[in-house]
């Protein structure tokens, strides 16, 4: 694997301009260049590349040094994060022993160090089964769920990393169930912090879409009722309500979902009110969110359609960002 990567185009741009002038005069080949032009070419390409593996190794050495301050550790972790969005570099970081360093950072007493490490785990794991499997084998998922009862920043970053570790990776989802992680995710819905609530909703809806067993377990844990308690009438688009409705929609398809008449009545009335108050707003014209309504939500007193249209501006909910 080539560990070199473009970081600046200034040198290349300057060279291209000069080379265009050179070619116009008929001297455009490397062999025909004088030593000064060759030296310029080499320096231009050196200035636009860095050795990523060298930087990762340097960051690891900083983190391994017992005399390193927490601020220096955070900077080193941020340096690592700059590169591990590339799947090849992420896998190489694991192979050169980066995991043990990350585990130590996840256990750090310094909050910023822990959060930086969580963000790295998240971004290394996204759509990367090699890293998902590796981190699962090193019990990182068990470590992450211990922070789901902490402050807003730690819980948010932990949910981000957990989501990346289990989405699209069935062994990860199975482990999350086995270690009691689903219950902790549901408990995150009690938060007063919108960012945490949205991330918890996203994780619930995503896992419920991918795995019926997980969806059934969320329903058994009372996730739907807890979400319904937060359902309220809004007068404009609200990302929190969008995340909540998506999660409710997925959970409503569970075979274990059996709402009582009172709950159904509350949900249907609130959804009707949301639509009636928003559908004619100028900012809502031409955009809508289709919310599939389970037949289990229909009551004997309503002829509610099987599909609601809730207004939504451009954009969607995600679990990104620590």
Blueprint of the fold:
Blueprint: E1 4-6, H1 10-24, H2 35-47, E2 49-51, H3 52-64, H4 70-81, H5 87-95, H6 98-106, H7 111-125, H8 129-137, H9 140-145, H10 152-166, H11 170-178, H12 181-187, H13 194-210, H14 212-220, H15 223-230, H16 239-251, H17 261-278, E3 289-292, E4 307-310
Antiparallel strand pairs: 1-2, 3-4
Key descriptive features of the protein:
322 residues; mainly alpha; Leucine-rich Repeat Variant; two-stranded antiparallel ribbon; 4 strands; elongated; disordered N terminus
CATH class of the largest domain, anyone? Mainly Alpha
| Helix/strand order | EHHEHHHHHHHHHHHHHHHEE
Can you identify the CATH superfamily of the largest domain? Leucine-rich Repeat Variant
- Spatial strand order of the main sheet: 1-2
- Number of separate domains: 2
Looking at the overall shape, the CATH architecture of the largest domain is Alpha Horseshoe
Strand content: under 5%
Protein name: Nucleotide exchange factor Fes1 domain-containing protein
GO molecular function: adenyl-nucleotide exchange factor activity
Organism: Glossina morsitans morsitans
Domain Nucleotide exchange factor Fes1: 9-92
What does this structure look like?
- The chain has 322 residues and is mostly helical.
- The N terminus is likely disordered.
- The strands form 2 sheets. A two-stranded antiparallel ribbon has the order 1-2. Strands 3-4 form a two-stranded antiparallel ribbon.
- The longest helix has 18 residues.
- It folds into 2 domains: 130 residues, Leucine-rich Repeat Variant; 101 residues, no CATH class.
- It starts with a strand and ends in a 12-residue tail after the last strand.
- The chain is 61% helix and 4% strand.
- The protein has 17 helices and 4 strands.
């Amino acid at each position: 694997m080539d560990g070199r990567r473009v970081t600046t185009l200034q040198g290349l741009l300057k060279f291209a301009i000069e080379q265009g002038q050179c070619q116009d005069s008929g001297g455009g080949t490397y062999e025909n260049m004088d030593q000064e032009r060759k030296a310029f070419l080499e320096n231009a390409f050196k200035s636009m590349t860095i050795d990523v593996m060298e930087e990762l190794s340097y960051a690891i050495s900083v983190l391994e040094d017992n005399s390193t301050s927490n601020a220096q550790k955070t900077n080193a972790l941020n340096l690592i994060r700059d590169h591990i969005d590339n799947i090849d570099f992420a896998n190489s970081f694991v192979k050169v022993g980066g995991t043990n360093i990350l585990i130590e950072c996840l256990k750090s007493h310094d909050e910023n160090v822990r959060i930086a490490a969580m963000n790295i785990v998240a971004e290394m794991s996204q759509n990367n089964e090699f890293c998902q499997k590796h981190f699962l084998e090193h019990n990182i998922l068990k470590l992450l769920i211990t922070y789901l009862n902490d402050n807003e920043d730690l819980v948010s970053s932990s949910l981000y990393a957990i989501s990346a570790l289990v989405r699209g990776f069935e062994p990860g989802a199975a482990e999350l169930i086995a270690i009691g992680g689903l219950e902790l995710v549901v408990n995150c819905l009690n938060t007063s912090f919108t960012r945490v609530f949205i991330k918890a909703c996203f994780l619930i809806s995503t896992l419920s879409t991918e795995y019926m067993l997980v969806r059934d377990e969320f329903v058994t844990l009372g996730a739907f009722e807890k979400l319904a308690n937060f359902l309220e009438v809004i007068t404009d688009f609200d990302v929190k309500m969008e995340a909540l409705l998506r999660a409710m929609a997925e959970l409503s398809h569970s075979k274990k979902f059996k709402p009582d008449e009172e709950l159904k009545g509350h949900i249907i009335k609130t959804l009707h009110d949301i639509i009636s108050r928003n559908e004619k707003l100028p900012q809502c014209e031409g955009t809508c969110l289709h919310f599939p309504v389970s037949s289990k939500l229909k009551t004997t007193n309503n002829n509610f359609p099987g599909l609601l249209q809730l207004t939504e501006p451009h954009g969607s909910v995600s679990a990104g960002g620590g």
